[in-house]
Amino acid sequence: MDSWFGKIFGVGGHGAHSETVIDPFYILAHIIMGLNAIVSRRLEPFAPAVVSIGTIHGGFAQNVIPDTVKISGTLRYTDPDVHRQIKDEMRRVFEIARNLGGDYELRFEDGGGPMINHESASGLLREVGVDLLGEENVRPMRQTLGAEDFGAFTDKVSGAMFVLGTRIEGDERTLHHPRFDIDERTMPIGVAVLVEAALRFLRSY
Question: What is the mean pLDDT of residues 11-25?
């Protein structure tokens, strides 16, 4: 996941005289449409990726058109080539600002690369999970575009990440919900899986 930060520059003025301004909100509306089309129209259809807008800030009074608007968000990917393409496409989209008489700044903050499980490590975790919890309680993890910096470790050494089921039965609140909660009775299960996996790994040497 990378974070990105954009700023749209126009010419502000009074809301009653919109013909005298270069409205950054008008420009931004076109940029938003362009950003939302990157994944659906510019990337190969089977390449997992997403471009998300998280914040928009601009203006200070309801009757004044500002001269700048800020926007920020994230981009997510699993393929380094797609990563480069998304950035190129985003720069192309922001050029809309100049075509409409304004200007822009666009800055990226690179995050970690994709988190990829190593087959040997994930196989060990699956074996331990099945032995401790039963086959019916161990499921393959689907690919997701959620951000995870554990990939910084698996870039250097063989490793794998597993997800521990902690949902409270009947509770539909998910991660980032303001009242998110977990069933803490599951925590010893996670500890047991990690400890047993570590012991088996060490015994193999």
Answer: 95
